Amino acid sequence: MKGERAASEGGARVRDRVTGRRKWKGEKGATLLADENAYERNNRWMLQSAARFGDKKIAFISLWNGQGGDGPGGAHHLMEEARRKTARIYWLDTRKLWD
Fold it and tell me: Do the bridges between strand 13-15 and strand 22-24 make them parallel or antiparallel, or are there none, so unpaired?
């Protein structure tokens, strides 16, 4: 039963920060929506986790070559999402570091 499950796992239902769906606290492997990419979702989750202290406290550091990558949810996507959250972005361009 639901009440027993919550009590036995030591938690209650919580709202998933990325999808907004309710799940058991500590539940692993939240289901992706049909149009959702796992890597993009993870990028957003990392930034939302950092933002819990306030967007003004986020400082994003990226070690990246500036290229688009081979699929969705890569470093380029993370950089775009970070730019929406903060102006404090420190990009270490690997093309310039190891010339």
Answer: antiparallel
Closest to 83 in 3D by CA, of 64, 55, 42, 53: 55
Continuous segment of H or E residues that includes residue 9: none
CA separation, residue 28 to residues 23, 24, 62, 64, 67 (Å)? 9, 9, 28, 30, 32
Q: How far apart are CA 5 and CA 12, in angstroms?
A: 9
Give the C-alpha separation, 29 to 24, whole Å: 11
Distance in angstroms between the alpha carbons of the first and the last residue of the chain:
61
Strands 60-64 and 22-24: unpaired
pLDDT averaged per 10 residues in sequence order, the chain, 99 residues: 42 61 57 84 91 90 90 91 94 89
Work out the angle at residue 34's Cα, subtended by the Cα atoms of residues 30 and 39, and round it to the nearest 5 degrees. Answer: 60
